[in-house]
Amino acid sequence: MLVNSTEFFKNLPPKQCRECGKEIDEQHECYMNHCEDCIKIGD
């Protein structure tokens, strides 16, 4: 059974930062994997 692409993206779990584990307030399908706080630390 094929899943509608809209349903697929809507059902993805929230993304978490790779560094601190904080939930990222971004679209789940985006490529970002660090929260804004951890990105600032790396600068």
Concise summary:
This protein is mainly α and 43 residues long. The chain has 2 helices and no strands.
Topology, element by element:
Elements: H1 5-10, H2 36-42
Element string (H = helix, E = strand): HH
The total count of strands amounts to 0
What percentage of amino acids are in beta strands? under 5%
Q: Could you tell me the radius of gyration in angstroms?
A: 13 Å
Mean pLDDT: 80
Poorly predicted ranges (pLDDT <50, ≥5 residues)? none
Helix count, per DSSP?
A: 2
Number of domains: 1
Shape call? elongated
Helical content band: 25-40%
Biggest β-sheet description: none
End-to-end distance = 45 Å
By secondary-structure content and strand pairing, the structural class works out as mainly alpha
What does this structure look like?
This protein has two helices and no strands. It is mainly alpha-helical and 43 residues long. The chain has one domain. It is elongated, with a radius of gyration of 13 Å. The relative contact order is 0.22. This is YhfH family protein. InterPro entries: YhfH-like. Pfam families: YhfH (PF14149).
